[in-house]
Amino acid sequence: MADEKKQKPQGDKKPQQQGKKAKPEQVEAAAEQADGKPSRPKASNRETARLRDRYYKEVRPALMKELGIENPMAAPKLEKIVVNMGVGEATQNAKVIDPAATEVGAITGQKPIVTKARKSIAAFKVREGMPIGVMVTLRGDRMYEFFDRLVNIALPRVRDFRGVPSKSFDGRGNYTLGVRDQLIFPEIDYSKVEKLKGMNITIVTTAGSDDQARALLKHMGMPFRQQ
Fold this sequence. Notes:
By secondary structure, the chain is α+β, with helices and mostly antiparallel strands. The protein is 30% helix and 15% strand.
């Protein structure tokens, strides 16, 4: 009789069902254990830049009414902002590139790239491929956040500030602003600055003309000089 009895399975384990999909958490954990590398973090519900919300809620309707545009997609908007800091001393001492890159990274919140000379110029002792500056291209929320800090915090800190010139457009809706020193940005620590460095800030828009770009920047808070 004992031989005829079948042995019961130990425990309360249930057989796994065939064809059942694993949860995403289990897939990520398995991938992490197999590769030995941490899994990619999930996207967080980060709030958008306040200037971006203001553009879609206030600026774009006002521009459409002022410029007579019916299609919302045709309204001019910011495309990108390029921050370029030239370091002429880098031709003699390449180590000055590191402080410039650190300062631009602190100002923009993005790691800059090192720009190199495209061709050799004997008069300036520049050789092809020599580092001569740093540059950052901002898009999306970082672009709007940088523009917000530039207009509301940095530019008012300029000594004897009377507004920015309204004629610094290139004819295709892009605006370039020159900054003499980096100390106007509150992210820069005065005690760690060895020398003042200027930079060029180019604001690229989707506007088809300078008048549309001027209206866009004016509605977004750019303090143009009154002539």
